[in-house]
Automatic annotation (TrEMBL):
GO terms for biological process: acetyl-CoA biosynthetic process from acetate. GO terms for molecular function: acetate-CoA ligase activity; AMP binding; ATP binding. InterPro entries: Ac_CoA_lig, ACAS_N, AMP-bd_C, AMP-bd_C_sf, AMP-dep_synth/lig_dom, ANL_N_sf. Residues 88-476 form the AMP-dependent synthetase/ligase domain. Belongs to the ATP-dependent AMP-binding enzyme family. Pfam families: ACAS_N, AMP-binding, AMP-binding_C. Its EC number is 6.2.1.1. This is acetate--CoA ligase. Keywords: ATP-binding, Ligase, Nucleotide-binding. PANTHER family: ACETYL-COENZYME A SYNTHETASE, ACETYL-COENZYME A SYNTHETASE 1. It comes from freshwater metagenome.
Amino acid sequence: MSQDHESLENLLQEDRFFLPSPEFAAQANAQPDEYAHANMDRLAFWEEQASALTWEKKWDAVLEWQAPYAQWFIGGKLNASVNALDRHVAEGRGSRVAFHFEGEPGDTQTITYAQLLTEVKKTANALIEIGIKAGDRVAIYMPMIPEAAIAMLACARIGAPHSVVFGGFSADALLSRIQDADAKLVITSDGGFRKGTAFALKPAVDEALKGQHNVEKVLVVARTKQDVAWTDRDIWWHEIVARQSAEHIAESFDAEHPLFILYTSGTTAKPKGIFHTTGGYLTQVAYTHKVVFDLKPETDVYWCTADVGWITGHSYVVYGPLINGATQVMYEGTPDTPHKGRIFEIVAKYGVTILYTAPTLIRTWMKWGDEFPLAHNLESLRLLGTVGEPINPEAWMWYREIIGGNRCPIVDTWWQTETGAIMISPLPGITATKPGSAMRPIPGISAKVVDDNATPVADGHGGYLILDQPWPAMLRGVWGEDERYKETYWSRFNGIYFAGDGAKLDNEGAIWLLGRVDDVMNVSGHRISTTEVESALVSHEAVAEAAVVGAADAMTGQGIVAFVILRSGIAHASGDELNTQLRNHVAKEIGAIAKPRQILIVNELPKTRSGKIMRRLLRDVAEDRVVGDATTLADPNIMKKIAEGLKTAKDED
Ligand code: WT7
């Protein structure tokens, strides 16, 4: 197929691949016939997966699809919390550990399924006493402590959709989310522990609630025991929950009953309230958690490092793993407190077997140096996962060698807040993985790479990643903004979901994610993905992390400007020599067209709270503009530091 107007160039070639070991393959939950089985009858396949849940009433029809509106398992009735908890206890698994909780200061809690169920029942009773009814929205603004999961499950138990707002967000961000969902209750804590100190949360709630809202009560967990201001609206969690009955018979809700709203952090516009329902969502999170992570609930210790404030925390800390009866680690703090080996120390302490984390953390570990992981025994690990951003092949190789001891399959899982559950990923006992590729859609899912006319591209070409069939865990809309739902996701291609990501197919049809299409650079008429240039830079031994942007260029339309973080403990050239080396390295890896015009060595990159690089801000710096709205940055000072570094570099020129 000739492609004159290639929507995205295919530049980076990768020849390495890794087969699952025969031992892993033999014991894997998903066996090679899984894909064919799903393809034979996609809807029957999802019905089969839904049957693994406990339903009070079976569904009458599997799917009703009137693009862009889907309903799954219509007429079915179930309760999310019963699926996560009651059925394990009823079937004799009550003494299994659900959470090994590790607080940042080193305090720990071991919580079994039976204990978790009791806490959730009492909390559900407390919510009822407060006056929360099915359908009422509850905002949850908490640190990463067991009560966060308990609060979510208690809401789900009584049919009150939760809206978890990440604890790192400001009072303003909290208020706008409270208003948008019209929440009636806020569940929070006095504070939490982070980077060695107690931070406060309750004051941000008090500040937020000075605005317009219909919040009647604030339920407060005492985590740090710091002093807090108190009003008549506030209730201590430990007081109200302690006096509740430990009995609560859960009512079942419709499969399409709203389970939660989760606001996407949105780097520009007003956040979108992505809303998910119950039956289809639970079906897909449970299925994917079982086959992608190969969970063996009796023996595995599973650890997903995501905060409950993100979709990963919803799907792969709370709902998926608990439905599957997993034993998990939950950690409150940051990876470098009190030392840069904290995560590895916890892996060794609990014998973690499955670790699911984000490329941003993997690249941070690379930057810190190998000595931190190497100081701990990581032999319990048997599977590694990543999510959130494209993982550069070299970061993938480092993860495999240094963390996984060359023994663990890696699952690079592509999905979104909107998709609710994993959509594209290797299956660890089946797929020969390639470093940097999410490989192919999981069984039962249809994803394609298409050109501007929605025509699938041939192998070896790039384009837009789309989902052309409804899936059980898909968003059911943008809360209160139907037009925005249609406009944002369904208008680029008629009746087809466009995720916003660019991707390419390699010569064997494997899918490589190439970053958001808004970030694509246009150099002399060639559309070049940021991901490929960044991966080329990271494949140089001196580089831990890179971010590239296209900056206006009189000659070429856009020129590539690269921001690079170096690895510690590795000898390398400096100054002009390093600069030349890196530019030549990119030219060698992917071609002269992608040679950066300018390379800036920096210590940090601007990232959102969930670890995504904010290229928009780097573009402002590269084009000498005043830096735009940086309120969603994890560290607001970073742009100042980068701009200052840039100024010094220019002065030296
Ligand atoms: C966007 C969704 C899904 C949980 C965390 C992020 C990017 C996500 C991958 C991956 C390349 C990825 C995409 C996607 N993304 N996973 N494995 N490879 N890119 O959820 O905040 O809704 O972000 O994250 O750009 O569209 P989110």
